[in-house]
Amino acid sequence: MMTGMKPPRLGRGLRDLRAWPAPVPAPRFPGSRADPGPDITSAAPFPAAMTRRPAVVCITSGKGGTGKSVIASNLSVHLATGGSRVILVDADLGLANQHLLLGVKPARSIVDVLERGVPMEAILENGPAGVALAAGASGSPEVADLHPGRLRRLVSAMEGLADRADIVIVDTGAGIGRATTTFLYALDDVVVVTTPDLTAMTDGYMVIKNVTRNNPRARLSVVVNRVQSAVEGLEVFGRMEHVCRRHLGRTPRFLGHVLEDRRIAASVSSRIPILLNQPASPAAACLRGVGRAILLGILSRRGEAATLDLEPECV
Amino acid sequence: MIVAATQDPDPALAQLLDQYLWAVAECDLLARAYPQAGAASHRAIRCMIVAPSFDPAFLDRLGLLTISVQSFVARLIPSTEPPEFLVELAEVIYGRRAVDPAAPGAASIADPALVADPWPFPMDPDVDAPLPMFPGEGPAAEEVGLPDLDGQVPAAEALTSEEIEEFAQFDRRRHVRDGAP
User: Fold this and answer.
1) A43 vs A67, residue with greater confidence
2) Which residue in chain B is spatially nearest to A2 when comparing CA positions?
3) Mean per-residue pLDDT for A196-204?
4) Greatest pairwise CA separation for chain A in angstroms
5) Residue B143 pLDDT exceeds 60
6) Do A4 and B85 touch (CB under 8 A)?
């Protein structure tokens, strides 16, 4: 038997997925401030293969500190590096930090959408790898506790992004507060990030339970972050799946695990996502695996062909 | 299950066997976690080891195992751009007997004698029967996009004591197993 096997290609796994738009030019990151990268705020020509509305993936968690925002930013970078037009919406109202994680200094934010009626697409900022960031508001209690009507208006404003992205990643706040659940109950793809901690698991399950009750059409997935091994990730998912099965009659999908890696903290400090800062690290390999799983889910729902491209580092 | 050895394949084989034992015990969990990848509890676990070369004695030892481990030789082809690997069955290169995964002695996770009790709880057929995934795992949707929003945001539903205890029990067992205080 003769089989050709290419060596691992860091950050290029998504290109193995057929029926996906051609890759964008090589990312210009680092140095997003000095080199703004492609101008995603203008209406770029739409790839012929992607004439549908964008897939919207909501990244959430039951409690803070699970690494949700780091996962959201790195997933955005990974998907953008693979050739997708990605918009990251920082919907952690009041405690937004995606601009810090991506090394972007936003001129405008979601506050402008809410307070001044600025269209969502007008607040987009160029980020690393071509990710377009809709920055959130940080330290603004008024924004953190919005009236439900204004919250719905904010979600509706995201419609303006429909012709500018293939994938929209929404980074919500943690927990089941009003602002967060507005997104969770409105969007179809919800990814719950948990850690092996008991409180993170129970709070993550609470999110799953409430989304199941109030948004039954949602596709729920789980990522287990900060694990010591792949086995630990599977065990934690197994417990969550077991409780969901027993009490909710449904089972979430497992997107994978992310290994505990101190280089993540270093990448946060440097304001460069670990996929760009330390692409050969185990955590980066895990994040690419999670990104592939998300993309496979999107493509399979659209009936488009896809193949698995596993990386040995993530186990 | 595939392990790649860069030098001595013996440690890689030991690692493979450890992982195999875990996978046999947790075959149901693996099937639940990776249904989209084709994992199913009735399917056998195939073990493969890939290395740049093998000692013929190592291949002989493989043949003594009660589970089937297929060995492959991977060689770099530097003349291609980018460089590619050529992967061949070791038996083709070394002239050993072909390994038949379905031969007697080949292990299967369906073999009840090899399946240990899953950790941390035994299977309950009434509870653990296959259930559908969340919506969206079935037929492909025509469109994926932003839905309309109607009505107020409902009040959150708290966890029951039984649900909390499910996680607490799991956490306690895990700490006991790992020797944590």
Assistant:
1) A67
2) B88
3) 96
4) 65
5) no
6) yes
| Phi–psi pair at B36, nearest 5 degrees | -70, -15
Do A194 and A235 contact (CB within 8 A), yes or no? no
The residues in B 107-166 lying below 8 A from A, measured between CB atoms, are: 119-121, 127-128, 131-137, 140-141, 143-147, 149, 152-154, 156-160, 162-164, 166
Does the pLDDT value for residue A279 go beyond 50? yes
Structure-model confidence comparison of residues A192 and A41, the more confident one: A192
Q: Which residue of A has its CA nearest to B155?
A: A178
C-alpha angle A303/A309/A313, rounded to 5°?
A: 145
Q: Distance between CA atoms of A237 and A254, rounded to whole angstroms?
A: 7
Q: Scanning every residue of chain A, which has its alpha carbon at the shortest distance from the alpha carbon of B161? A: A202
Q: Is A157 exposed, middle or buried (0-12, 13-18, 19+ CB in 10 A)?
A: buried
Q: Report d(CA A306, CA A14) in Å as an integer.
A: 10
* Bond from prior residue into B78 cis (ω within 30 degrees of 0): no
- Give the separation between CA A274 and CA A74, rounded to whole angstroms: 7
Pick from B25, B53, B161, B49: nearest CA to A231: B25
- Out of A33-42, A63-72, B17-26, the most confident range is A63-72
- Cβ of B153 and A148 within 8 Å? yes
Contact between chains at B145 and A53 (C-beta distance less than 8 A): yes
Mutation site, B153, B161, B174, B176, interface A, largest A CB count within 10 A: B153
- The DSSP call for residue A210 is H
Token pair listed for A8? 């691992």
Bridge partners of B72, per DSSP, are B50, B89
What span, in angstroms and rounded, lies between the C-alpha atoms of A208 and B63? 48
pLDDT in tens, A212-243: 999 888 999 999 999 999 889 999 999 999 99
pLDDT band at A149 (very low <50, low <70, confident <90, very high): confident
The helix/strand count (H/E) of chain A reads as: 11, 9
Tens of pLDDT along A45-104? 323 334 467 889 999 999 999 999 999 999 999 999 988 999 999 988 778 899 999 999
Is the Cα dihedral A245, A247, A250, A253 positive or negative?
negative
Amino acid letter, A129 = A
Q: Is B179 exposed, middle or buried (0-12, 13-18, 19+ CB in 10 A)?
A: exposed
Q: Are residues A234 and B30, on separate chains, in Cβ contact within 8 Å?
A: yes
Global pTM? 0.74
Token pair for A42:
């203008």
Q: What is the CA radius of gyration of chain B?
A: 23
